[in-house]
Amino acid sequence: VADGLLEELDVEVNTREATLGNIYKGVITRVEPSLQAVFVDYGASRNGFLSINDVHPSYFPESFEAARKRPRVQEVFKKDDHVIVQVNKEERSNKGASLTTNISLAGRYLVLMPGTDLCGVSRKIEDEKERKKLKELLKQLKLPENIGFIIRTAGMGRTKTELARDFDYLLKLWQCIEKDVADLPAPAMLHREHDIVIRAIREHFSSDICEILVDDKDVYRKVREFFHQVMPKYEPQVKQYQEKRPLFNKYQLEEQIEQVYSKRIKLKSGGHLVIEPTEAMVTIDVNSGSATKEKGIEDTAYRVNMEAAPEVARQLRLRDLGGIIVVDFIDMTQKKHKQDVEKAIKAALKLDRAKTKILRISTLGLLELSRQRLK
């Protein structure tokens, strides 16, 4: 929540186990040359899908590794081979999970990537001086061979001690996983991604947050423990919420959460959005509704569109809508107005952790964009 406005919403259903980010030792059940992919039994009800594009070069035969050429999938795997995979897209309706062998373990400030010697800094950190400084710090951590690290955006301005703590934590985690690879029969789970609470803290916590409120005793203990391990300095920020009034009620979040499941979103100006997910894409219609304060039709359209742009970005984030998204803004004739609306939606999507790609407003007044689905 920022300034009373719901910014992010994460929902986890107890009856459906979340698998995103989990690491498994799997068995190849089928090699499909026509798809250049294999199907992997990793212990779920439906086999996962692993494309040759998501296969780490360490699996390639030596002749290909030397030539730096990508082999065909049938030259890399055969039925019943074992493979270490991580879920990068969960099962959805009738689609199995999408898997990768490019393993990554995210900590608070760093991401560990086995099988590479890459040492880098998140692209979102654009300041060259800061990037250089962070790369120097990484080199001082005595990185093991064949394990790469990337400093996340949250690592900006952190001390060597803070980075080292995260580094040790991730390294120990990976060593435990490696031990299990040798010991466990396939299919088996090697690593379960943190639950929703720890994940939310890892992704969203920053030093300008003054308190974290938890309304459940067990979860409160778990959160304190995580802070104690990873960020002891901020442990006092974790508070247990003990008032009689439910936490979400106190901050008027119930209505905002209900809106996330509604097709129609009202805008302050009197306009509204209509959000319709379809099989092929998500369509969003911007309507002027009762917005009539402006002098003329162009001004009304511009004002409603400028208000709709950040709201569209916020709704995409809250609902985690992915794939192709088409926004039908109210028609505007002035070129500058169109450019302003494009800029406004770009600026609002900068806050999104998901990768997005935005095109210009077309002659039909439609703005197309694509967004990576995170959950």
Order of helices and strands: EEEHHEEEEEHEHEHEHEHHEEEHEHEE
Strand content: 15-25%
Helix content: 25-40%
Chain-averaged pLDDT:
88
Major sheet attributes = 6 strands, mixed
- Total number of helices: 10
- What ranges have pLDDT less than 50 throughout 5 or more consecutive residues? none
Report how far the terminal alpha carbons are from each other: 19 Å
Rg, Å, rounded: 24 Å
Give a count of the beta strands, DSSP E runs of length 2 or more.
18
Task: Strand order, main sheet: write it out.
Answer: 13-14-15-16-18-17
What class would the helix/strand composition place it in?
A: alpha+beta
Please state the overall shape, judged from the principal axes of the Cα atoms.
Answer: globular
Describe the protein's architecture and organization.
The longest helix is centred in the middle third of the chain and has 24 residues, at 160-183. The mean pLDDT is 88. α9 (297-319) packs parallel to α10. The chain is built from ten helices and 18 strands. The chain starts with 22 loop residues before the first strand and ends with a strand. α9 links the parallel β15 (282-287) and β16. By secondary structure, the chain is an alpha+beta fold. The chain has helices at residues 62-67, 73-76, 128-139, 160-183, 196-204, 217-230, 247-250, 253-260, 297-319, 335-349, and strands at 23-32, 37-41, 48-51, 82-89, 98-100, 105-106, 110-114, 119-121, 147-151, 188-191, 212-214, 238-240, 264-266, 272-277, 282-287, 323-328, 356-361, 366-371. The strands form four sheets. A six-stranded mixed sheet has the order 13-14-15-16-18-17, covered by helices on one side. A five-stranded mixed β-barrel has the order 1-2-3-5-4. Strands 6-7-9-8 form a four-stranded mixed sheet, with helices on one face.
